[in-house]
From TrEMBL, chain A:
<keyword id="KW-0001">2Fe-2S</keyword>
<dbReference type="Pfam" id="PF00355">
    <property type="entry name" value="Rieske"/>
</dbReference>
<dbReference type="GO" id="GO:0046872">
    <property type="term" value="F:metal ion binding"/>
</dbReference>
<dbReference type="GO" id="GO:0051537">
    <property type="term" value="F:2 iron, 2 sulfur cluster binding"/>
</dbReference>
<dbReference type="GO" id="GO:0004497">
    <property type="term" value="F:monooxygenase activity"/>
</dbReference>
<feature type="domain" description="Rieske">
    <location>
        <begin position="3"/>
        <end position="116"/>
    </location>
</feature>
<dbReference type="InterPro" id="IPR017941">
    <property type="entry name" value="Rieske_2Fe-2S"/>
</dbReference>
<keyword id="KW-0411">Iron-sulfur</keyword>
<keyword id="KW-0479">Metal-binding</keyword>
TrEMBL record, chain B:
<dbReference type="InterPro" id="IPR006680">
    <property type="entry name" value="Amidohydro-rel"/>
</dbReference>
<protein>
    <submittedName>
        <fullName>Putative TIM-barrel fold metal-dependent hydrolase</fullName>
    </submittedName>
</protein>
<feature type="domain" description="Amidohydrolase-related">
    <location>
        <begin position="44"/>
        <end position="352"/>
    </location>
</feature>
<dbReference type="GO" id="GO:0016787">
    <property type="term" value="F:hydrolase activity"/>
</dbReference>
<dbReference type="GO" id="GO:0019748">
    <property type="term" value="P:secondary metabolic process"/>
</dbReference>
<keyword id="KW-0378">Hydrolase</keyword>
<dbReference type="GO" id="GO:0016831">
    <property type="term" value="F:carboxy-lyase activity"/>
</dbReference>
<dbReference type="Pfam" id="PF04909">
    <property type="entry name" value="Amidohydro_2"/>
</dbReference>
<keyword id="KW-0456">Lyase</keyword>
Amino acid sequence: MKEFVCHEEDLQPGQMMHATFGKHDIVVCRASDGHYYAFLDRCIHQGAPLSKGKLCGAPQPTDEVGDYDFQQEGDILRCPWHGREFDVKNNGCMLADERMKLRNFKVEVENGEVAVTK
Amino acid sequence: MATKTESRTGLIDTDIHERVMYEELLPYLEQPWRRYITDCHWIQEKHMPYTQPAVAGVDRADARVPDGRPAGTDLGFMQEQLLNPNGHEAGILTGALDPSPSSMHGWYEMATALASAYNDWQIDNWLDRDERLYGSVQIAAQDPAGAVREIERVGTHPKMVQVLLPLDDILWGDPYYHPIFEAAEKHNLMIGMHHNEPPVHYGKWPRYFIEWHTLIPVAHMNQVTNLIFNGVFEKFPNLKVMMIEGGFTYVPFLMRKMDQQYKDLRHEVPWVTKKPSETVKEHFCFTTQPLEEMTKKEFLQVIDQMGSEDIVSFSTDYPHWDYDSPTEALPPGLDDTFVRKMLSETARKFYPKLPQKEG
Ligand code: FES
């Protein structure tokens, strides 16, 4: 199954939007490098609509208490409810527990259109 | 067996936060109190040094009203986002805790005026406008005589089901506050205790929000212990207390610890005549949120150690960031009858002013 879900220019790097793919609600993210990623728009914790959260950065793991080094701006999807962080460029893995990840879809760009496939 | 996606029709939600904007209170405030807000820009002091936990501060990011107003300020949006889709039969309003009259560290006259204004605003804008919503009487508990007057004034409203006492730095079991319990009992109101800004770190604030939020149950334990050993329930045998937003997984530890201590130290509190764990089962109820993620087995182990499946009641805490979904938060596979108790029947029994089922 393949469906065009938005135009390439609908999203700037660091932006995301809700779309539908078949009967699924999905969230389409455009990461900092300009690439597109798509996930089920339903958090794996308690089902919040992820597209209402934020595509942002995250402080990096560090050895120093009090050291906030924000990186990955535009690549981290934070859930609108409990704020869990998912790395859109790493298969939607949760930062606090890499074994947990969002359900993702394959995305291609064809002639300025963003297509999602399953 | 209950499944995750099953509808939660008939839910009685024991923690919903409506929120007032100060300007909405003005029509309900007499002078000179109104003047202190309009002319002097008075707002209640807050203490928590961190308000950043989630994407939209302390609220669910999707709960902000579409026109830009803060989460919890609009009944229509609350109906659309919470009450209608989740099948609420009833919801207990617990206030936004700002203002929180009983949390003020002075100027109790203003606190008393604010409590009255808040109650009138709550009745007009929420209780009278949605039959599913029930209210909490706000008081300025630092002045027990004034608090009793307020309970007498609005506690008879058919949809006021409890008196709210926040958890900050006052332990409410002290006999000084007993007139409040007496008035509540007289009007068939229960007590709801919900933390506001308890300084859980030896009277101060830990360095990080994650520490404070992890330790909130400590503030709840302080109050449960204090009420029991100050003899509140021997004195007011019909009084019950809903501990709101501390979860329930701390309860087995506390019951066992209090029982053991009571055997050793009963001589210090001879007015306590019942085993503390029995008092917990008879006089307390605990809201579920914020639920830790547990398997069915782990969940039932905690319930088993409490010795009762009748003192845990589901709550969402809408619209706050640590909201629990009625369809997602409980572990799958729990027995239907037990789930039904948590979702509605335990709360219905707890609050005598909620609509009771025939027979
Ligand atoms: S629902 Fe997404 S973090 Fe809880």
